[in-house]
Amino acid sequence: MKIGELAALTGVSVRSLRYYESQGLITPVRQANGYREYSPLAVETVETIQLYLNLGLSTEQISGFLHCVLRNKESFCSEVMPLYASKLADIESQLLQLNQIKQNLEERMASILQEQKDTASETVTKKT
Questions:
Q1: 41-54 vs 14-22: helix crossing angle, rounded to 10
Q2: Cα gap 12→78, rounded to integer Å
Q3: Following CA atoms 14, 16, 21, 22 in sequence, which dihedral angle do they give, to the nearest 10 degrees?
């Protein structure tokens, strides 16, 4: 199948497919006219890539185990669990950082609201 057909079947843009190719994740056969020709298995490969991208993994990380998970069950690929653990640790760190930022924003907003309230009270007191 041509790259446009693969894009239509997987819902992935042609640009993304070309990027996956440049990263070594998919490998088409080049026809004499230079067109890319993909095997029917490319659909499963692209869907698998999408699954791992949706888990927050990079194409570089995916390339380290993609061939293994396409041939075996994920549980038989020793590269997967360390990546998952590392990604989970990154997410936990990001959540801590985001919660700190959230708390800082809430404190600033409360401070501003209190200052506005105090200013409004002073204005009412001065008028009376």
A1: 90
A2: 28
A3: 120
* 69-123: pLDDT as tens digits: 999 988 899 999 999 999 999 999 999 999 999 999 999 999 999 999 988 887 7
Q: pTM value?
A: 0.78
CB 12 within 8 A of CB 47: no
Amino acid found at 15: R
Question: Who's near 108: CB < 8 A, 6+ residues apart?
Answer: none
Residue 84, token pair as written in the block: 């998952």
pLDDT of residue 125: 73
